Amino acid sequence: MSRYRVVGSAAECEPGSNGLVLRNHLGITDPAVMEAMERDLLLDLYQTIIGNGAPTNRLRISDVIRWHRQWLQPVYAWAGMVRTFNLSKEGFAFASAHLLPDLLKAFESEYLGRLTPFNPDSMGALIRGLAEVHVEFVLIHPFREGNGRIARLLADVMACQAGIGPLDYSEWDRQRDLYFAAIRAGAVLNVTPMEDLFRQVLTGGIVDS
Predict the structure, then answer these.
(1) What secondary structure, in 3-state letters, does the chain show?
(2) pLDDT digits 0-9 by tens, 181-208
(3) Is the confidence at residue 29, as pLDDT, over 60?
(4) Rounded distance, CA 3 to CA 16, Å?
(5) N or C terminus: which one in the chain shows less Cβ crowding within 10 Å?
(6) Which CATH code is given to the segment(s) 43-203?
Protein backbone atom coordinates (compact mmCIF):
# COMPACT_ATOMS: atom_id res chain seq x y z
CA MET A 1 0.00 0.00 0.00
CA SER A 2 1.35 3.42 -0.91
CA ARG A 3 1.76 5.81 1.98
CA TYR A 4 2.39 8.82 -0.24
CA ARG A 5 0.31 11.46 -1.97
CA VAL A 6 0.98 11.57 -5.69
CA VAL A 7 -0.98 12.56 -8.78
CA GLY A 8 -1.08 11.22 -12.32
CA SER A 9 -0.44 7.74 -13.71
CA ALA A 10 2.14 7.00 -11.03
CA ALA A 11 -0.71 7.02 -8.53
CA GLU A 12 -2.58 4.22 -10.32
CA CYS A 13 -3.52 1.29 -8.15
CA GLU A 14 -4.12 -2.31 -9.10
CA PRO A 15 -7.78 -2.90 -10.05
CA GLY A 16 -9.54 -4.81 -7.32
CA SER A 17 -7.16 -3.66 -4.57
CA ASN A 18 -9.47 -0.92 -3.24
CA GLY A 19 -6.67 1.55 -3.81
CA LEU A 20 -4.35 -0.32 -1.44
CA VAL A 21 -1.82 -1.81 -3.88
CA LEU A 22 0.04 -0.01 -6.66
CA ARG A 23 -0.44 -1.28 -10.21
CA ASN A 24 1.99 -4.15 -10.69
CA HIS A 25 3.11 -6.79 -13.17
CA LEU A 26 1.76 -9.67 -11.10
CA GLY A 27 -1.81 -8.51 -10.58
CA ILE A 28 -1.38 -8.62 -6.80
CA THR A 29 -4.31 -6.99 -4.99
CA ASP A 30 -3.68 -8.01 -1.37
CA PRO A 31 -1.45 -5.53 0.54
CA ALA A 32 -0.09 -8.30 2.77
CA VAL A 33 0.92 -10.37 -0.25
CA MET A 34 2.63 -7.37 -1.85
CA GLU A 35 4.44 -6.52 1.39
CA ALA A 36 5.74 -10.09 1.61
CA MET A 37 6.78 -10.04 -2.05
CA GLU A 38 8.73 -6.79 -1.64
CA ARG A 39 10.36 -8.12 1.54
CA ASP A 40 11.46 -11.37 -0.10
CA LEU A 41 12.83 -9.54 -3.13
CA LEU A 42 14.72 -7.17 -0.83
CA LEU A 43 16.32 -10.12 0.96
CA ASP A 44 17.41 -11.45 -2.43
CA LEU A 45 18.89 -8.05 -3.26
CA TYR A 46 20.82 -7.96 0.02
CA GLN A 47 22.25 -11.37 -0.77
CA THR A 48 23.32 -10.13 -4.18
CA ILE A 49 24.84 -6.86 -2.97
CA ILE A 50 26.51 -7.82 0.31
CA GLY A 51 26.14 -11.58 0.64
CA ASN A 52 29.69 -12.18 -0.53
CA GLY A 53 31.12 -8.92 0.76
CA ALA A 54 29.96 -5.38 0.16
CA PRO A 55 31.26 -3.30 -2.76
CA THR A 56 34.63 -1.78 -1.87
CA ASN A 57 34.56 0.92 -4.54
CA ARG A 58 33.33 4.47 -4.46
CA LEU A 59 29.56 4.36 -4.75
CA ARG A 60 27.69 6.30 -7.43
CA ILE A 61 24.06 7.20 -7.86
CA SER A 62 23.97 4.76 -10.79
CA ASP A 63 24.66 1.98 -8.26
CA VAL A 64 21.71 3.05 -6.14
CA ILE A 65 19.42 3.24 -9.17
CA ARG A 66 20.56 -0.22 -10.25
CA TRP A 67 19.78 -1.61 -6.77
CA HIS A 68 16.26 -0.22 -6.95
CA ARG A 69 15.74 -1.67 -10.42
CA GLN A 70 17.09 -5.09 -9.41
CA TRP A 71 14.84 -5.13 -6.36
CA LEU A 72 11.47 -4.06 -7.78
CA GLN A 73 11.69 -4.79 -11.51
CA PRO A 74 9.81 -8.11 -11.11
CA VAL A 75 6.88 -6.16 -9.66
CA TYR A 76 6.69 -2.56 -10.91
CA ALA A 77 7.18 -0.93 -14.32
CA TRP A 78 8.85 2.10 -12.72
CA ALA A 79 11.57 0.19 -10.86
CA GLY A 80 14.88 2.00 -11.16
CA MET A 81 13.26 5.12 -12.62
CA VAL A 82 13.72 8.53 -11.04
CA ARG A 83 10.28 10.00 -10.40
CA THR A 84 8.95 12.80 -12.61
CA PHE A 85 6.17 13.90 -10.24
CA ASN A 86 6.06 15.55 -6.84
CA LEU A 87 5.62 13.42 -3.76
CA SER A 88 4.57 14.15 -0.19
CA LYS A 89 3.82 12.22 2.97
CA GLU A 90 1.67 13.42 5.86
CA GLY A 91 1.98 17.00 4.64
CA PHE A 92 5.77 16.83 4.24
CA ALA A 93 6.95 17.48 0.68
CA PHE A 94 10.04 15.71 -0.60
CA ALA A 95 12.31 17.29 -3.21
CA SER A 96 10.49 18.68 -6.24
CA ALA A 97 10.72 16.43 -9.27
CA HIS A 98 12.30 19.06 -11.52
CA LEU A 99 15.20 19.39 -9.07
CA LEU A 100 16.04 15.69 -8.89
CA PRO A 101 18.69 15.49 -11.64
CA ASP A 102 20.76 18.26 -10.04
CA LEU A 103 20.13 16.98 -6.51
CA LEU A 104 21.24 13.46 -7.40
CA LYS A 105 24.35 14.79 -9.12
CA ALA A 106 25.17 16.81 -6.00
CA PHE A 107 24.41 13.83 -3.75
CA GLU A 108 26.92 11.75 -5.67
CA SER A 109 29.69 14.34 -5.54
CA GLU A 110 29.12 15.80 -2.08
CA TYR A 111 28.15 12.66 -0.17
CA LEU A 112 28.99 9.43 -2.00
CA GLY A 113 32.14 10.88 -3.51
CA ARG A 114 33.32 12.26 -0.18
CA LEU A 115 32.36 9.37 2.06
CA THR A 116 32.74 6.18 0.01
CA PRO A 117 34.42 3.82 0.17
CA PHE A 118 33.53 4.47 3.81
CA ASN A 119 36.52 4.33 6.15
CA PRO A 120 35.74 6.54 9.18
CA ASP A 121 38.49 7.10 11.72
CA SER A 122 36.23 7.29 14.78
CA MET A 123 32.79 6.32 16.05
CA GLY A 124 31.76 9.95 15.71
CA ALA A 125 32.79 10.05 12.06
CA LEU A 126 31.00 6.75 11.44
CA ILE A 127 27.75 8.01 12.93
CA ARG A 128 28.00 11.40 11.25
CA GLY A 129 28.65 9.93 7.81
CA LEU A 130 25.79 7.44 7.99
CA ALA A 131 23.40 10.10 9.27
CA GLU A 132 24.32 12.66 6.61
CA VAL A 133 23.92 10.23 3.72
CA HIS A 134 20.69 8.75 5.05
CA VAL A 135 18.94 12.06 5.68
CA GLU A 136 19.98 13.57 2.36
CA PHE A 137 18.88 10.55 0.35
CA VAL A 138 15.50 10.31 2.07
CA LEU A 139 14.88 14.03 1.58
CA ILE A 140 15.65 13.69 -2.13
CA HIS A 141 13.34 10.65 -2.31
CA PRO A 142 14.18 9.86 -5.93
CA PHE A 143 11.85 6.90 -6.42
CA ARG A 144 8.10 6.33 -6.45
CA GLU A 145 8.35 3.82 -3.59
CA GLY A 146 11.04 2.06 -1.59
CA ASN A 147 13.26 5.05 -0.81
CA GLY A 148 13.57 4.27 2.89
CA ARG A 149 14.53 0.66 2.28
CA ILE A 150 17.09 1.62 -0.35
CA ALA A 151 18.44 4.25 2.07
CA ARG A 152 18.90 1.49 4.66
CA LEU A 153 20.66 -0.70 2.10
CA LEU A 154 22.98 2.19 1.30
CA ALA A 155 23.73 2.61 5.02
CA ASP A 156 24.35 -1.13 5.31
CA VAL A 157 26.78 -1.11 2.38
CA MET A 158 28.64 1.80 3.97
CA ALA A 159 28.64 0.02 7.34
CA CYS A 160 30.11 -3.06 5.65
CA GLN A 161 32.79 -0.91 4.02
CA ALA A 162 33.60 0.36 7.51
CA GLY A 163 33.98 -3.21 8.74
CA ILE A 164 30.81 -3.33 10.84
CA GLY A 165 28.29 -5.21 8.74
CA PRO A 166 24.55 -4.74 8.17
CA LEU A 167 22.69 -2.85 10.88
CA ASP A 168 19.61 -3.79 12.90
CA TYR A 169 16.87 -1.20 12.38
CA SER A 170 14.23 -2.87 14.54
CA GLU A 171 14.26 -0.04 17.09
CA TRP A 172 13.64 2.47 14.30
CA ASP A 173 10.59 0.48 13.27
CA ARG A 174 9.30 0.67 16.83
CA GLN A 175 9.93 4.42 17.02
CA ARG A 176 8.57 5.70 13.72
CA ASP A 177 7.69 9.11 15.13
CA LEU A 178 11.29 9.69 16.20
CA TYR A 179 12.53 8.61 12.79
CA PHE A 180 10.24 10.95 10.87
CA ALA A 181 11.11 13.77 13.27
CA ALA A 182 14.79 13.15 12.48
CA ILE A 183 14.10 13.38 8.74
CA ARG A 184 12.20 16.63 9.24
CA ALA A 185 15.07 18.00 11.32
CA GLY A 186 17.44 17.12 8.51
CA ALA A 187 15.40 19.31 6.18
CA VAL A 188 16.58 22.31 8.22
CA LEU A 189 20.19 21.05 8.26
CA ASN A 190 20.01 19.48 11.72
CA VAL A 191 21.31 15.91 11.50
CA THR A 192 21.78 15.47 15.26
CA PRO A 193 18.49 13.55 15.72
CA MET A 194 19.49 11.14 12.94
CA GLU A 195 22.92 10.78 14.50
CA ASP A 196 21.18 9.80 17.72
CA LEU A 197 19.21 7.13 15.86
CA PHE A 198 22.33 5.69 14.24
CA ARG A 199 24.10 5.77 17.60
CA GLN A 200 21.21 3.73 18.97
CA VAL A 201 21.55 1.19 16.15
CA LEU A 202 25.31 0.93 16.58
CA THR A 203 25.41 0.73 20.37
CA GLY A 204 22.06 -0.78 21.27
CA GLY A 205 21.20 2.32 23.27
CA ILE A 206 17.76 3.84 23.73
CA VAL A 207 16.91 7.23 22.29
CA ASP A 208 14.99 9.42 24.69
CA SER A 209 11.64 10.57 23.34
Answers:
(1) CCCCECCCHHHCECCCCCCCCECCCCCCCCHHHHHHHHHHHHHHHHHHHHCCCCCCCCCCHHHHHHHHHHHHCCCCCCCCCCCCCCCEECCEECCCHHHHHHHHHHHHHHHHHHHCCCCCCCHHHHHHHHHHHHHHHHHHCCCCCCHHHHHHHHHHHHHHHCCCCCCCCHHHHHCHHHHHHHHHHHCCCCCHHHHHHHHHHHHCCCCCC
(2) 999 999 999 999 999 999 999 986 444 4
(3) yes
(4) 18
(5) C
(6) 1.10.3290.10
